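ok so i was messing around last nite and threw this chain in just to see what happens. nothing serious, just curious
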Amino acid sequence: MKTALSPYMLGATLYMPATRTDLADIILNDKIPELRSLVVCLEDAVSDSEVEYALQNLHQLLAELACTASEPQEQRRPLVFIRPRNETMAAKLISDHSLEGIDGFVLPKFTLANLSCWWDIMSGTDLHMMPTLETQDVFDVNAMTALANELTKHACRARIIALRIGGNDLMSVISLRHPRNMTLYDGPMGYVVKMLVAVFASRGFALTAPVCEQIDNVELLQRELTLDIAHGLVGKTAIHPTHLDVIHRALEVQPDEYEDALRILNSTQAVFKSQGAMCEPATHRSWAVNVLERSKYCGIAKQFNNVLYASRQ
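result:
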């Protein structure tokens, strides 16, 4: 089994088509320094006519990664995942290739109906899993509750880093697109995210935020990130490298959150006041644990460091 991964290690997860010829350079040579996790996509990002070429390109990439998997790493590599087109392609990739340099698979169109099939494919490997919730039944709270209940007791549970919310596919189901000047939360997806958080996060699953497809509207991305974090989402899908730094800065823990988390976990008081707000360790403990976990992998906003530095002078 591969080393356990925290969902907070994902950060901004960049999706790139398997047709790109510079994937090895990106993964092995730090071509995108801000990159923390990468999905090599064989599904939506690859047209039907390019599938064979994409598979050939991926074969070469996997061979290069396998050759360097045991070598000492001069710099941290991003986490690398493959998003196969379907279950059949996933099974063939696993049977035909060395996947030593791969951390896991993103499972497209994941449902309760295909859970057993996916586990038959994945169970014989040590790969991590990131199922994607992006089909029509995601809009049905009863269907999602049934899936969550099954995943909670299923053998695959330990392999799941996070569940990915497939925003664009879900918007397609209802014949909509991400609004150009509105966050995803301002439309029907606002309900969907809230429902998925209520159903899955309450059972201990981490969820990642959908992509913001407006590449040049950084202000919109920042607004959406604020809402992602308010809903407890642990990372965000990215489709352009310019979004990486913006997402990573947003994921940094704010100084007041960090200080409150420490106080909550170390306090012997049942209730106390901190920075103008009530802190109640009995109910805020899990929040505090998550804040410290996020700070470990995403860092603390710089102003905290400045305050800390000043206090030591």
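not much to say yet. The CA atoms of residues 20 and 147 lie 35 Å apart.
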